Amino acid sequence: MKWVNSVKKVFDYLKTLLDSSSTVVVGVSGGPDSMALLYILATLAKVKSFSLICCHVNHNVRKESKQEKEFLENWCMEHDILFETMTIEHYSDDNFHNEARSIRYRYFEEIVRKYHANYLMTAHHGDDLVETILMRLTRGSTLRGYSGFQQEVDMGDYRIIRPLISVSKQELVEYDQKMGIPYVIDGSNNQDKYTRNRYRKYILPFLKEENPHVHEKFLKFSTMLNEYSIFIDKQVDKVFTSIYHDDVLEIPSFLKLESLLQSRILYRILEGIYQDDLILVHDRHINLLYQLILSKKKNTYIMLPNHIKMVKAYDKIKVVKEENIISQYEMELIDYAVLPNGKHLEILREDIPENGNDICRLDSHDVVLPLYVRTRKYGDKMAVKGLSGHQKIKDIFINCKVAMEDRELWPIVVDATGKIIWIPGIKKSKINKQKDESYDIIIKYY
Asked: What is the pLDDT of residues 20-42, one digit of tens each?
């Protein structure tokens, strides 16, 4: 019955964290771990009166996926919980787990933005932490990477929370059984072709035999590594911004530092790029980056996971996010959009004081709705505010010194007829309104 104390700790933690002003998006697969978390949050929401949204991604790789989505949707309907879902229609990467995870978290963030949520919660538990640490120790990682994942991650305007990090898988299953919480079982979790499954099936049971509470020891190990990492980071803080800024590493200044600080700076750069995807980064990537820095070639580059390109140009290294997989896109702009270039577009409900090129104000009588955001097309032109005639989008990019690698994915807002009304962050069209004019549509780019 050890699950009683473990689950009580989760309840106590969440009671302290959440209040009536909180909005929580929880990622739920329908398995025993995520259903336990959803049940805990649903129970607390009745007492603490916070908003709860269940978010489900149908990975669309098993015949049971549709039924699992329907099961979860029905459960949420019965318990009066908002339900959001999406289906992955296509995979382009040969690493299914990495791509699925990236898509999943992009969608979670989209739902967080949609509901202006404070928290994104996932059901990662103590056994997951053990597996992650072992995998990173085997493959090589950063100091923070070796610590696995954290209970709380600050994402700026929201936080990722993993409330079950101190609870074992067995304790969660026992809790589900005791409380009568239904769940589904993903049969692919038993397939040896996936690396994590092999750790789960063969290594974790051995460790559990040695110590049934081994996950608590790994959590302590993770916490200790984080403390060491924080101490070293304080030393790095003193020099980091003078060495690395605007995604550019200054090579001469970097080479003057002690090797420990050099190493930590490179790790920090990669941690900033990959954040919770640090499992993708190995020691060999750090070594490749070192080789790039020390290379006698004036202009060269290396490729890192997730299409990250490290470009050396004379005495600088620039981080470039290659988005060749998405070279074109077009999407309807309803309320909010997460763009492939990492930026966001949001239709605001209330006006704000800002008045630069990151804000667009329109009169709906001047456009044909709905609005769309897309990439540039050959021959695109826009009637630029303050100028006569039309200018080619290509020339606007050149005049505004937009880097070549940024142009292909730069968003262009058009109406339903295809008329270009705004290049976010760069130029507005003639139909954009000033604050003292009449308008009923306000869009922010950030």
From this structure: 999 999 999 999 999 999 999 99
Q: What is the pLDDT of residues 282-308, one digit of tens each?
A: 777 888 899 999 999 888 888 887 778
> Residue 324: is its pLDDT beyond 50?
no
Nearest to 251 by CA among 318, 320, 321: 318
Please give the helix or strand (H or E) that residue 436 lies within, else none.
none
User: Measuring CA to CA, which residue among 283, 317, 313, 319 is closest to residue 299?
Assistant: 313
Nearest to residue 69, comparing CAs of 86, 53, 81, 52? 86
- Count of all residues that appear for the chain in the document: 446
φ, ψ at 386 (rounded to 5°):
90, -5
The CATH topology of domain 239-321 is: 3.30.465
Beta-carbon contacts of 115 under 8 Å, excluding residues fewer than 6 positions away, are 23, 25, 51, 53, 82
Q: Which long-range contacts (CB under 8 A, 24 or more apart) does 190-195 make?
A: 194/97, 195/135
Q: Tell me how far the alpha carbon of residue 177 is from its chain's centroid.
A: 33
Out of 3.50.40.10, 2.60.120.260, 3.30.450.20, 3.30.530.20, select the CATH number for domain 330-445.
3.50.40.10
Residue 142's closest CA among 273, 256, 321, 291? 273
Q: How far is CA 347 from CA 51, 96, 115, 414, 444, in A?
A: 22, 34, 13, 14, 6
Residues in contact with 171: Cβ distance below 8 Å, sequence separation at least 6, in sequence order: 2, 3, 6, 7
pTM: 0.61
The amino acid present at 404, given as its one-letter code, is M
Domain 3-220 belongs to what topology? Answer: Rossmann fold (3.40.50)
